[in-house]
Amino acid sequence: MDGQDLKGSTVLSIKRLSRYLTHLRFLRKTGTKEGFSASQLGRDLCIHETQVRKDLALTGLEGRPKTGHSIEEAIEAIEKYFNIGDTSEAFLVGVGHLGTAILGYHSRKNSHPSGIKIVAAFDNDDSKIGKTIHGIKVLAIDKITDLSNRMHISIGIICTPPEAAQGIADMLVEGGVKAIWNFSPVGLTLPESIVLENSDIEQGAAFLKRRLTEQKRGKK
Amino acid sequence: MDGQDLKGSTVLSIKRLSRYLTHLRFLRKTGTKEGFSASQLGRDLCIHETQVRKDLALTGLEGRPKTGHSIEEAIEAIEKYFNIGDTSEAFLVGVGHLGTAILGYHSRKNSHPSGIKIVAAFDNDDSKIGKTIHGIKVLAIDKITDLSNRMHISIGIICTPPEAAQGIADMLVEGGVKAIWNFSPVGLTLPESIVLENSDIEQGAAFLKRRLTEQKRGKK
């Protein structure tokens, strides 16, 4: 199943909740001690406070008109909503610049801020195989299926060129992964039961160009 | 304005149209000569054909139940919808792995598949300043505002750590950009008139974790 099986409103809520989480962690990191209100969070992220309240309600966080929330309890509620505490192990395939960037974020020894832990990386480039990047060993592609089965990997992250993506996806599915996170700008055909998330970075460019155009035409 | 000012349905249509474009270009690249039908495209991308037709209709492409479309005319229609032909010049700030990956995609001499052309990159790391990456010169951050004004840059792409993002955004806005494409996982405060697109890669992880959880619970 792909994002499009979720209602547009749900997709936007999840998008926003992810941004709230990032922002609240940023506040915590920068030492903000006091609590926050939905209206503050809305101001920070340019989102209407009513929307913020609705989104936070999805996580079971109860509104507190007067006192507001503590940053910690809000972070916990959103992390629980995304089931981040229950870390999923992942393989990453394609260690180019994008793959390396994602590897850097999800390979950290102790913290897995998205609940995804990359435990091995794969590439078909002999100059990369055997290297260790961000503490993760780069292995040959032909090891994907067997290792994935033996290690019970649940997520496959694909950062390969489009031509290679479907073949890699098939290896990962054969290896028993439950979800594919696809950064390769191409459509993948997968069994119904596999969760598919497409993160084609270029979609952001499409939004930008479209909205710049609408703005030129004076529309919203 | 940020993505959330668009209706959820519009957001999903733009997301899908961007995927259609990528997929159709992939078909063209791999030498597919014949035309395609909405149902075929739907099958390739696991999207219901009715939805595909609705989306394509937004671009003004007329449905052809019997004959289908030529790949070329569909690519043209979607490119026109995203105004890709009218290339926008951009600055990219923060040349880490992610910045370098994006640079590689948008700096190509001749083709600018998203209608965005990065003409200069910026970093505060002396070891990077002066270097040329993917044919683009890396300059010092303090040059952003002046250069952006002089070159009439329309898009600023931010790939910096979260702590730096707002300051860079302010320099870019002072430099007269019309849009900010923010890859830094933090909320930005910008004037109403500026188009803001947040492409926090970790949002994909949030979707994945949430949907894996729903699947465990046997919900959709």
Largest sheet of chain A: 7 strands, mixed
Examine the coordinates and then state which fold CATH places here, giving the name of the CATH topology of the largest domain in chain A: Rossmann fold
Overall 3D shape of chain A:
globular
CATH architecture assignment name of the largest domain in chain A? 3-Layer(aba) Sandwich
CATH level-four homologous superfamily name of the largest domain in chain A? NAD(P)-binding Rossmann-like Domain
Proportion of beta-strand residues of chain A:
15-25%
Q: Greatest contact pair?
A: A-B, 79 and 79 residues
Give the fraction of residues assigned to helices of chain A: 40-55%
Rg of chain A, alpha carbons: 20 Å
Give me the number of helical elements of chain A: 8
Unreliable runs of chain A: none
In spatial order, strands of the major sheet of chain A run 3-4-2-1-5-6-7
The CATH class label of the largest domain in chain A is Alpha Beta
Instruction: Tell me the span between the first and last alpha carbons of chain A.
Output: 31 Å
Indicate the structural class of chain A: alpha/beta
What is the ordering of alpha helices and beta strands of chain A?
HHHHEHEEEHEHEEH
The multimeric state of the shown protein is: homodimer
How much is the average pLDDT of chain A? 87
